[in-house]
Amino acid sequence: AKESRKKDEL
Amino acid sequence: MNIFRLAGDMSHLFSILLLLLKIHTIKSCAGVSLKTQELYALVFATRYLDIFTGYISLYNTLMKMFFLWSSFTIVWYMRYHNVVRRSYDKDQDTFRHYFLILPCFILALLVHEKFTFLEVLWTFSLYLEAVAILPQLVLLQRTRNVDNLTGHYVFFLGAYRSFYILNWIYRYFTEQNYYKWITWISGLVQTALYADFFYYYVKSWRNSERLQLPA
């Protein structure tokens, strides 16, 4: 889950 | 960006524009909960600290700035504007919003993905957003006869949450390694809180009646 944390939502 | 996410963001934007229209043009905030608006201001202030630390897109940055600006503007109007503040239903808007903030903060300290300052605040903002509508729903319940703009405002806020759930489902099936338990669970809780309101909103719309919530 390393990149699933990218917060691209508002 | 998929169509569900865009529809969600646009509903959110539209709901805030409706509220600003009511407050700025009609100079009234009757039926609007200041407690909920203060909670949203806190939600955005704690979540969008990442404006300074990470860049996603111009769209994201502009939307974040709009949500921050609009939430503080609405609170300012309701508290300090000479005309608007007089229409605020202070005696009805009695929900103890401070009681929501502390549990959300403690939960964020306990359940998060990384124990860093920004990450805990971001998690706190998710938990708080999930329950921030409660003072508004209680106020609606109390005033019972809901004016159109306030009713539409809550409806579009709920629509925004529903579209986000569709967006998560879509992303789960189309992207690899896309799962965010904390976001999903708090989002589901948040959307569930609107279910009762939605029921009465759709019912009044179908019968073309004024929205009235049961006592």
Automatic annotation (TrEMBL), chain B:
GO terms for biological process: protein retention in ER lumen; protein transport; vesicle-mediated transport. Its main location: endoplasmic reticulum. GO terms for molecular function: ER retention sequence binding. It comes from the Eukaryota. The chain crosses the membrane at residues 55-77, 98-115, 121-140, 152-170, 182-202. GO terms for cellular component: endoplasmic reticulum membrane. The keyword GTP-binding does not apply. It comes from Adiantum capillus-veneris (Maidenhair fern). It is a multi-pass membrane protein. It is found in: Endoplasmic reticulum membrane. Residues 1-28 form the signal peptide. This is ER lumen protein-retaining receptor. InterPro entries: ER_ret_rcpt (IPR000133). The keyword Isomerase does not apply. Belongs to the ERD2 family. Keywords: Endoplasmic reticulum, ER-Golgi transport, Membrane, Protein transport, Receptor, Signal, Transmembrane, Transmembrane helix, Transport.
